[in-house]
Amino acid sequence: MSDTGQRTPRALFEVAVTWTVLFLGNLILPLLLAIELVHGRGWLGVVAGCTFCWLSGLCLMIMQTASKRAMLIGASLTGLSQLFPILQVLAGIIALTVWQPTAHMLGIDERLSANFIGPCFVTMSTGGILMTVAIFSGGGMSVMVRAFTYRESPLRRPYRNPFE
Q1: pTM higher than the cut 0.70
Q2: Residue 101 contacts residue 38 (beta carbons within 8 Å)
């Protein structure tokens, strides 16, 4: 996958396949946790929320060439963090904590099995939190990798006194 900003059909296809694989890898634990909370029609909301998160991540990777590397690295790190799923559990708890008062305020049943809106909202919130963490962690790792691998890295230049 080239990082030159080329938008050839092959490059777009590679980005779409790579993002889809990483996205599906990141769904494993959140879907296992959702099995306990979502029933019946609520799964349509989960599918809609997952589709929204997948499409928004794909659009970000296609439109923003600079964020492509950060998103790929961050999504890989977030997927690996499922081995110790503190991040995923916290993202789900935050999403559920935001959903309950929002449902009460709107007069909607807050049970995730009662309607389509609740699971969709919680899924998009959880996905948004995890994608934000992925972008920032991937961006940080991308900067660190560049700093240590490029020949013209400021870390590899010999010290020059600017006052001489």
Answers
A1: yes
A2: no
